[in-house]
Amino acid sequence: MSTKIYNAFKFKKGLSDLMPFLKKAREDIEKDTIGYYRSIRNADKGGKVRDLIELFKKARDVNSFEFNIESSIVILFHDTGIYMIFYFPGHFGRNDGGYFKKWEEWIEDFHYQNQGDKPEDISEEEWGYREGVWDDLIGYGEPISRTGLIWEINNNEFEIASSILKN
Questions:
Q1: Angle at alpha carbon of residue 141, lines to 140 and 144, rounded to 5°
Q2: Which of 122, 154, 137, 151 is CA-nearest to residue 5?
Q3: Burial class (CB in 10 A: 0-12, 13-18, 19+), 166
Q4: Is 141 left (phi over 0), alpha (psi -120 to 50) or beta?
Q5: Under 8 Å CB-to-CB from 122, ≥6 apart: which residues?
Q6: Residue 137: how many other CB atoms lie within 10 Å
Q7: How many alpha carbons lie under 13 Å from residue 144 in its C-beta half-sphere?
Q8: What residues does each domain of the chain span?
Q9: What radius of gyration do the chain's Cα atoms show?
């Protein structure tokens, strides 16, 4: 079985700093989600985004790539620290780490995958260490949502969708 853990980070600070970071991440991601979809809405000539938002307002359940505002952070605790995996819409630069630079003070890259070569900028020792940590944290067979805590980012999708529609 291959392991692919993208958008994964090690928390660089202590437990007392975790809640302030999570609140900041929620604030940033909600703001950026609203801004992103507003820019699409404003450029949307055919009304497709507005139609999706209206559908969302009626059904309150739209799980499409075109209008996905569900976001969360899984927080995992290990003897060596606190680790996080971010789940949110792909428009935030998924898999390249660029979006996460705004939080460099709090988190550092800790992704891992074993279906290909390791990145050139990570030593063999570090790569092996990451493999061991992720094996301990998620192992095989358990859904990741059962091995850590889930911090919901956009937990009021209706309010966010309404904000996107505002001018």
A1: 85
A2: 137
A3: exposed
A4: left
A5: 130
A6: 20
A7: 19
A8: 4-165
A9: 18
pLDDT digits (tens, 9 = 90+) for 30-67: 888 777 777 766 666 666 666 666 655 555 444 444 45
Query: Mind listing the pLDDT tens digit for each residue in 131-152?
Result: 999 988 887 667 777 788 888 8
Report how far apart, in Å, the C-alpha atoms of 98 and of each of 91, 94, 102, 137 are: 11, 8, 8, 25
Structure tokens, 36: 């992103």
pTM over 0.70: yes
DSSP codes of every residue in the chain? ---EE-SEEEE-S-GGGHHHHHHHHHHHHHHHHHHHHHHHHHH-SS-HHHHHHHHHHHHS---BTTB----EEEEEEETTEEEEEEE--GGGTTTT-GGGGGGTTTEEE--EESSSPPPTTS-HHHHHHHHHHHHHHHTTTS-GGGTSEEEES---HHHHHHHHH--
Q: Dihedral through CA 136, CA 137, CA 140, CA 143, nearest 10?
A: 170
CA 58/CA 162 separation, integer angstroms: 12
